[in-house]
Amino acid sequence: MPPPKDVVKIAIQMVGAIPQLIELQQTKPLASVLKDVCDAWSLPNAERYALQYADGRQTYITESNRRDIKNGSILRLTTSPDQEAERLYIGIQSKNVDVKTDSLKKLASLSQDVTFAQEFISRNGLKQIYSIVEEGNDAGEMLAHTLKAFTELMEHDFVSWENLSTVFIKKIVSYVNMNAVDASIQQLSLSILENMVPTSYLLFEVVKKGVTLDRLLTHLQATNAQLQLKAMALLIALLLSATDAERQEMMDYLREKNIRQFIHKNIIHSSEPLGDEMAHYLYVLQSVSLNLCEHRMKMSMDPYSQEQRDLLQSLRQTAFESESEVPAGTFSTERRKSLCAKEFRKLGFLNNSNPAEDLRRAPPGLLALDNMVYFSRNTPNAYSRFVLENSSREDKHECPFARSSIQLTLILCEILHIGEPCSETAQAFYPMFFGQDHFFEELFCICIQLVNKTWKEMRATQEDFDKVMQVVREQITRTLSLKPTSLELFKTRVNALNYSEILKLRQTERLHQEETLAVPVLELREKLKPELLELIRQQRLLHLCEGTLFRKISSRRRQDKLWYCRLSPNHKVLHYGDVEEGVQSPPIESLSEKIPVADMKMLLVGKECPHTKEKSSGKQNKDVLELAFSIVHDVEEYCLNFIAPTRYEFCLWTDGLNVLLGKEMTSERTQTDLDVLLSMELKLRLLDLENISIPDDPPPIPKPPSNLNFCYDFSQAEQ
C-alpha cells in the first residue's frame, strides 16, 4: 500500500555518521522530529540544529515549507539558521583575513535562504556589511563576496533600498566608475544600482548623477559579456525610471554618441550568440525610443500655432516652389487663397481650404505632419515626384499624398506598438532599428513611396483608398516578419512584394481554404484528426522531456535567476531546479526537485495562477498573465509556478501538461499545428486527384446483379 499523504520517506545525512532512513510525519512538530533525529545520533541540544536539503540550493526546512518535501528527498542535519547567522555575524568582524573571507563567502551562499537571511538581518548584520563597503579597506575576493551577500539579502525585501546611506551608495558608484577594479565587483555594483533605481525617484537621481551615460557606454564596449549585460540592465532601469523630459534628454545624448550603430555592430552582430536577457533589453530600448513619438502622436494640430502652420505651408512651398515664387502683389488675397487651396488639394488634403482640420485626428496627430515634413526635406526629389506625378493624373486616379501619409503613420504606430507600455518578458526587436538614426521617419519615407507604387499597380481610384492601405499594411507586416537586418534590405523586400505577389499569396490561401471545405474532404479530415492529434501529443511530451529554461520574475524587477524544468523519459516525474546563467540543457540528475505526475491535480493559467494574483494588475503585467501557468499538486494543493519565456513555450508546456493530466490540448498552437498537419496529409492523399473536381455527393451505388452465380462457394470445396 502507498504511504499516507502526510507521511514521506526521506534520508537524513550528517558528516561522519551513518545516514538515517525515516518516515517523516508531516503532522508532527518539526522540533520533535529534530529531537528524534538528534537522539538517534546521541546529539544534545537539538534546538541548535536544523534540517536542510542536501542538494540544490540547500534550503532550510521550516514549518512553512516542510510540505515541499517529497518521497526520496535527501536532507542534511546542520547548524540551525540562528546559530549559523550568529557565527557568521562574528566571523565577518574578525581581524583574521582568512576567517573573514571564508565567513563572507559562506554568507553569500546562505543568504539565498529566506530563513537564514531573516536571522542574519535581525542581528543587524546588514550594518556590518555596510561598514565593510563604506570603510573601503577590503578589495578583490573579499569585496566580491560582500557585495554578493548584500545583493542576496536585499533580494528578500526585508529592508528598503531607501535606507541605504549616501556613503554606501557613493562607494558602489565609485566601483562602477573605477578602471582598475575586478570585473566581478563591477558587475555586482551595476546589479545593485539597477535594483536601487526603480525603488524611488531620489535614488534614481543619485545614481543618474553618479554614473554618467558616458561611463555606461564604456562598459557596453567591454569585451566581458556579463559586464556588458549588467551595464545595459542599468541603462534600461534609468530610462524606465526617468520622467518624459529626462528620457528624451538621455535618448538624445545616446543618439549623439551613436549608441544604435554600436549596438548594431558589436552586440547584435557579435560573434557571440545574443542571450535572452540582452534581447529583452534591446526590445525595451527600441520600445522606449519609439515611444518618444507618443507625445506628437497624441497631439492634435493647433490651427493657431504659427510653428505648426509654417510646417504645413512648407509642404506646399516645397512641392510647388516655382508657382509659389510669384510676387505677392500679382494676385488678390482671394486669388491667392484659391491658389493655396488648389495646391493643398493637389497635396491630397481632404479639407483643402483648411488643411489643419485633417491633422486634428489623434492619433496620428502631429506625428503625421512631422513625417511629411521629414520626407519633403530629406528626400525632396522623391517628394516632388510623388506630388507632381499624382497632380497630373485624372482626379479619380490620383493618390492623395496627405491623406495617405496620415493613414500610413497610424498604421506604422499600430504595427510598432507606439504608445503601448513595454512588456516585461518580450524579446522581439527589429535588428534594422539599431542600424539607422531617425528609424521611424526613414521607415515612413520607404513606405509612403510604397503606397504610391501599390496605388499604381492596383490602378486605384479614391474609392479604393482603404483597400490600398490594407494591402500596404499587409506588405509591411509580411516583410517585417522576415526580420530584415537593415532598412535597405527592408526596402528591397517590401518593393519585391508587389500587389500581384500579394494577390498570389491571398489566392493560394483562399484556394487552400476552398479545397478543404468540400464535403468528402471534410469527412477525410475528421478521420485523420485522431491520428494527427496523437502525433501532436507525442511531440508535446517530447518537448517536455527536452525541458525549458524559465526565469523568475518578481513585481520589483526582471530577475537574473534561472531555473530548468523537464519531464523524465518515462513521463512519470517532472524534474526541476535552479541553474546558472549559460547552462542550456542541464542533465536530469542535476535537477534536485521533482513532482510525480501521479500527484499532479490541476493546471491553472493566466489570472487563476497564484503568482499572478500577487502582482499588481497594471498594463505592465498583461504579457505576464498571457505567459503564466501553475501546476497544482498534492493534497495540500501546493503550486509550482511558471512564466514561459515565449507564447510558443507557453502553448507547448500547457498542452504537454494537459496530456499528462489526461485532458484535451487547448492552446491555439494545437489548432495551428493540427491545421498544418491536416493540410500536408490531405495534399498527399489528394495528389492523384489534382485538377479533378471532387463532387459534393458520392457517386450512386449500382443495383445488385440479378444473380450471384459468379461467386465461388467455399463450403463445397471443403467437402
UniProtKB/TrEMBL annotation:
Keywords: Apoptosis, Phagocytosis, SH3-binding. Involved in cytoskeletal rearrangements required for phagocytosis of apoptotic cells and cell motility. Acts in association with DOCK1 and CRK. Was initially proposed to be required in complex with DOCK1 to activate Rac Rho small GTPases. May enhance the guanine nucleotide exchange factor (GEF) activity of DOCK1. It comes from the Eukaryota. Residues 307-480 form the ELMO domain. The lineage of its organism: Eukaryota, Metazoa, Chordata, Craniata, Vertebrata. GO terms for biological process: actin filament organization; apoptotic process; cell motility; phagocytosis. Pfam families: ELMO_ARM (PF11841), ELMO_CED12 (PF04727), PH_12 (PF16457). This is ELMO3 protein. GO terms for molecular function: SH3 domain binding.
